[in-house]
Protein backbone atom coordinates (compact mmCIF):
# COMPACT_ATOMS: atom_id res chain seq x y z
CA UNK A 1 0.00 0.00 0.00
CA UNK A 2 1.43 3.39 -1.02
CA UNK A 3 1.47 6.18 1.58
CA UNK A 4 0.05 9.48 0.51
CA UNK A 5 1.92 12.66 1.32
CA UNK A 6 0.10 15.15 3.50
CA UNK A 7 -1.58 17.92 1.43
CA UNK A 8 0.79 20.60 2.71
CA UNK A 9 3.82 18.67 1.42
CA UNK A 10 2.38 18.69 -2.10
CA UNK A 11 2.42 22.47 -2.41
CA UNK A 12 5.68 23.20 -0.59
CA UNK A 13 8.63 24.56 -2.55
CA UNK A 14 11.95 22.66 -2.23
CA UNK A 15 13.52 25.35 -0.04
CA UNK A 16 10.48 25.32 2.25
CA UNK A 17 11.14 21.69 3.11
CA UNK A 18 14.54 22.68 4.56
CA UNK A 19 13.13 23.99 7.82
CA UNK A 20 15.56 23.95 10.74
CA UNK A 21 13.31 25.44 13.43
CA UNK A 22 10.37 27.72 14.10
CA UNK A 23 9.04 27.32 10.57
CA UNK A 24 11.76 29.44 8.93
CA UNK A 25 13.30 28.44 5.59
CA UNK A 26 16.98 27.53 5.84
CA UNK A 27 18.47 30.30 3.69
CA UNK A 28 17.53 33.34 5.81
CA UNK A 29 18.65 31.50 8.94
CA UNK A 30 22.07 30.49 7.57
CA UNK A 31 23.17 33.56 5.61
CA UNK A 32 23.98 35.76 8.57
CA UNK A 33 26.63 33.56 10.21
CA UNK A 34 29.29 33.73 7.47
CA UNK A 35 28.72 37.46 6.98
CA UNK A 36 29.10 38.32 10.66
CA UNK A 37 32.21 36.21 11.20
CA UNK A 38 33.72 37.51 7.94
CA UNK A 39 33.41 41.03 9.34
CA UNK A 40 35.33 39.98 12.48
CA UNK A 41 38.20 38.10 10.78
CA UNK A 42 40.08 41.21 9.51
CA UNK A 43 40.33 42.65 13.03
CA UNK A 44 41.44 39.28 14.40
CA UNK A 45 44.02 38.85 11.63
CA UNK A 46 45.32 42.40 12.13
CA UNK A 47 45.65 41.82 15.87
CA UNK A 48 47.44 38.51 15.33
CA UNK A 49 49.75 40.10 12.77
CA UNK A 50 50.62 42.89 15.20
CA UNK A 51 51.23 40.29 17.92
CA UNK A 52 53.35 38.21 15.52
CA UNK A 53 55.60 41.18 14.78
CA UNK A 54 56.05 41.59 18.53
CA UNK A 55 56.83 37.89 18.89
CA UNK A 56 53.64 37.10 20.81
CA UNK A 57 51.47 35.20 18.33
CA UNK A 58 52.19 31.55 17.75
CA UNK A 59 50.63 28.83 15.67
CA UNK A 60 47.84 28.20 18.18
CA UNK A 61 46.60 31.77 17.88
CA UNK A 62 46.63 31.58 14.09
CA UNK A 63 44.86 28.21 14.30
CA UNK A 64 41.92 29.92 16.03
CA UNK A 65 41.61 32.33 13.10
CA UNK A 66 41.93 29.37 10.71
CA UNK A 67 39.07 27.58 12.50
CA UNK A 68 36.84 30.65 12.35
CA UNK A 69 37.59 31.09 8.67
CA UNK A 70 36.71 27.44 8.07
CA UNK A 71 33.32 28.18 9.66
CA UNK A 72 32.92 31.17 7.32
CA UNK A 73 33.71 29.08 4.25
CA UNK A 74 31.49 26.17 5.32
CA UNK A 75 28.49 28.29 6.20
CA UNK A 76 28.96 30.39 3.05
CA UNK A 77 28.72 27.18 1.01
CA UNK A 78 25.62 26.12 2.96
CA UNK A 79 24.08 29.55 2.39
CA UNK A 80 24.75 29.30 -1.36
CA UNK A 81 23.20 25.83 -1.55
CA UNK A 82 20.13 26.86 0.43
CA UNK A 83 19.82 29.98 -1.74
CA UNK A 84 19.65 27.80 -4.83
CA UNK A 85 16.57 26.15 -3.33
CA UNK A 86 14.97 29.51 -2.61
CA UNK A 87 15.71 30.88 -6.08
CA UNK A 88 12.60 29.46 -7.72
CA UNK A 89 10.18 31.27 -5.42
CA UNK A 90 12.22 34.49 -5.54
CA UNK A 91 12.01 34.53 -9.35
CA UNK A 92 8.26 35.04 -9.03
CA UNK A 93 8.70 38.51 -7.50
CA UNK A 94 12.26 39.72 -8.19
CA UNK A 95 13.87 40.58 -11.51
CA UNK A 96 16.45 38.14 -12.83
CA UNK A 97 19.10 40.86 -12.78
CA UNK A 98 18.72 41.31 -9.01
CA UNK A 99 18.85 37.55 -8.44
CA UNK A 100 21.89 37.25 -10.69
CA UNK A 101 23.69 40.08 -8.86
CA UNK A 102 23.10 38.38 -5.50
CA UNK A 103 24.17 34.98 -6.83
CA UNK A 104 27.34 36.33 -8.45
CA UNK A 105 28.28 38.29 -5.32
CA UNK A 106 27.79 35.14 -3.22
CA UNK A 107 30.03 33.10 -5.52
CA UNK A 108 32.83 35.69 -5.42
CA UNK A 109 32.47 35.92 -1.62
CA UNK A 110 32.76 32.13 -1.34
CA UNK A 111 35.89 32.04 -3.52
CA UNK A 112 37.37 34.79 -1.36
CA UNK A 113 36.64 32.84 1.82
CA UNK A 114 38.52 29.86 0.39
CA UNK A 115 41.50 32.06 -0.56
CA UNK A 116 41.69 33.50 2.97
CA UNK A 117 41.32 29.98 4.40
CA UNK A 118 44.31 28.80 2.34
CA UNK A 119 46.29 31.89 3.39
CA UNK A 120 45.54 31.26 7.06
CA UNK A 121 46.52 27.61 6.62
CA UNK A 122 49.86 28.74 5.20
CA UNK A 123 50.27 31.23 8.05
CA UNK A 124 49.78 28.43 10.59
CA UNK A 125 52.25 26.20 8.77
CA UNK A 126 54.99 28.80 8.28
CA UNK A 127 57.79 29.53 10.71
CA UNK A 128 57.07 32.53 12.95
CA UNK A 129 59.50 34.74 11.02
CA UNK A 130 57.46 34.25 7.83
CA UNK A 131 54.02 33.97 9.39
CA UNK A 132 53.98 37.65 10.29
CA UNK A 133 54.42 38.64 6.64
CA UNK A 134 51.82 36.09 5.59
CA UNK A 135 49.59 37.62 8.28
CA UNK A 136 49.78 40.97 6.51
CA UNK A 137 48.59 39.39 3.28
CA UNK A 138 45.84 37.47 5.09
CA UNK A 139 44.66 40.65 6.83
CA UNK A 140 44.31 42.40 3.46
CA UNK A 141 42.54 39.39 1.98
CA UNK A 142 40.20 39.12 4.96
CA UNK A 143 39.34 42.80 4.66
CA UNK A 144 38.53 42.31 0.96
CA UNK A 145 36.33 39.29 1.82
CA UNK A 146 34.51 41.32 4.49
CA UNK A 147 33.73 43.97 1.87
CA UNK A 148 32.54 41.24 -0.50
CA UNK A 149 30.29 40.00 2.32
CA UNK A 150 28.78 43.46 2.64
CA UNK A 151 28.11 43.39 -1.11
CA UNK A 152 26.36 39.99 -0.84
CA UNK A 153 24.28 41.21 2.09
CA UNK A 154 23.27 44.36 0.25
CA UNK A 155 22.21 42.38 -2.82
CA UNK A 156 20.22 39.99 -0.62
CA UNK A 157 18.64 42.87 1.25
CA UNK A 158 17.62 44.41 -2.07
CA UNK A 159 15.88 41.16 -3.00
CA UNK A 160 13.97 41.07 0.28
CA UNK A 161 13.22 44.71 1.05
CA UNK A 162 12.90 46.17 -2.44
CA UNK A 163 11.44 43.26 -4.38
CA UNK A 164 9.73 41.28 -1.60
CA UNK A 165 11.54 37.99 -2.24
CA UNK A 166 11.01 35.62 0.66
CA UNK A 167 8.48 37.90 2.35
CA UNK A 168 4.89 36.88 2.78
CA UNK A 169 2.72 39.94 2.89
CA UNK A 170 -0.79 39.83 4.22
CA UNK A 171 -3.43 42.39 4.89
CA UNK A 172 -3.29 43.24 8.57
CA UNK A 173 -6.56 42.80 10.37
CA UNK A 174 -7.52 43.39 13.98
CA UNK A 175 -5.00 41.53 16.11
CA UNK A 176 -3.51 39.63 13.15
CA UNK A 177 0.01 39.35 11.86
CA UNK A 178 0.86 41.89 9.18
CA UNK A 179 3.80 42.20 6.85
CA UNK A 180 6.90 40.35 7.98
CA UNK A 181 4.94 38.62 10.72
CA UNK A 182 4.69 41.66 12.97
CA UNK A 183 1.72 41.75 15.28
CA UNK A 184 -0.56 44.67 14.56
CA UNK A 185 -2.77 46.05 17.29
CA UNK A 186 -6.51 46.13 16.71
CA UNK A 187 -7.72 49.39 15.22
CA UNK A 188 -9.78 51.54 17.54
CA UNK A 189 -12.83 53.16 16.11
CA UNK A 190 -13.39 56.73 17.10
CA UNK A 191 -16.92 57.49 18.25
CA UNK A 192 -18.44 60.90 18.12
CA UNK A 193 -20.42 61.43 21.32
CA UNK A 194 -22.32 64.48 20.06
Helical amount: 55-70%
> What is the typical, i.e. mean, pLDDT?
81
Low-confidence stretches: 1-17, 176-189
* Biggest pleated sheet: none
Question: Count of DSSP E strands?
Answer: 0
Q: Note the run of SSEs as H and E.
A: HHHHHH
Termini separation = 71 Å
From the alpha carbons, calculate the radius of gyration and give it in angstroms: 23 Å
SS strand fraction: under 5%
Give the count of helical stretches.
Answer: 6
* Secondary-structure class: mainly alpha
C-alpha geometry: elongated
Describe the fold and architecture:
With 194 residues, the chain is an all-alpha fold. The protein has a domain at 30-164. Helices cover 66% and strands 0% of the residues. The chain has 6 helices and no strands. It has helices at 7-11, 26-30, 32-53, 59-90, 96-125, 128-162. α3 (32-53) packs antiparallel against α6, α4 packs antiparallel against α5 and α5 packs antiparallel against α6. The longest helix is centred in the C-terminal third of the chain and has 35 residues, at 128-162.
Amino acid sequence: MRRMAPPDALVMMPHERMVPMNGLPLHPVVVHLPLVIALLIPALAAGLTWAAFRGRAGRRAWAIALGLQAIVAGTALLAMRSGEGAEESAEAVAPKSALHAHEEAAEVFFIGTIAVLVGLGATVALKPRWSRWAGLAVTGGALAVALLGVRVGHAGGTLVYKHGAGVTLSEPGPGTAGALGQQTPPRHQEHDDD
